Amino acid sequence: MFYLSASILSADFSNLSDQIRQAEDAGVDWIHIDVMDGHFVPNITMGPFIVETCRRITSLPLDVHLMIEKPENHIQSFINAGANWISIHIENNPNVHRTLQFIHSQGAHAGIVLNPGTPAQAIDAVLPFIDLVLIMTVNPGFSGQSFIPQILNKIRLIRKSLDQTNPKAILQVDGGINSDNILAVAEAGATCFVAATAIFKHPEGIVQGVNSLRQQLQKKMRLSPQIQEGS
Fold this sequence. Notes:
TIM Barrel; 35% helix
């Protein structure tokens, strides 16, 4: 199955409710929330209050990406606020197994994230314990960056590893995803696509932004009839 996760990092926060509802009506599957603390990445964004606000706006799954130091100290707050998925970085979590177990114990789905410079093999030991792998195709911190095409091979490698060890896990990609590259990302093995600028900053509006991405995924579906889009 394919899923589109709309990242509100590029949304108009003065009109967040309408922006999320437009994305939902257009057919996105999840809402992606990028949490940055200004230490692990060079930007500060949002916290549990925004997650709680999004939960009041929509019933779609809330997909929270924690780009913060010591994420284990804050996971409970995000789950209490309504997060369905919590993804943490392999790069700054020495007790990653314990943290993933804690996420599961609180009733949420657990994801592991790799930055562009982190090799695919870095997460081999945790693949049996996750529900999602998030591969960054830009260096995290800011929206609107360009997709790094060299990461496609990493997507292929992790797709192969997941097929062998945890085939039910979702392979998510985030960073510069748009209608020009989403098909290549899908063909490399991704099943969930995070888009920010391509949806919320599309020149013809949010609905057309979502439609443009879906149209490209339809091409993959025609090539692989067994694959269905998420709902």
